[in-house]
Amino acid sequence: MVKYCGYTVRNEWMYQRGVDLGFPRPVTAEEKSDMILLISRDLMTETGVSRCTKLRHVKTAKGTGFWCIAFASNDTLSERLPTTAPSEEKYKALKEVLQKKGPPRWYKAS
């Protein structure tokens, strides 16, 4: 089973960030998908992690689905991500924007 180490983000957080940046609130499934891709790219670029992360869908231990900005994976061949969590200097800016506490955590792929 593939696992990812990163920070989780809810769909609604991404939609609201898009609205805060001046985009209209997405209504259709296509608009929602486009917004998630656009905002995740913007977020990863703004925080300087775009070259060392990937956006993946994960589940928590309770089965709740989230988007994960992943820094590492246990599937290095297909993911091309490290197998270990990054140093704090790599994730600090993202952590602050997302208002997370602590280092990135490991989640199962959904």
TrEMBL record:
Domain of life, per lineage: Eukaryota
Protein's name according to its UniProt entry: Uncharacterized protein
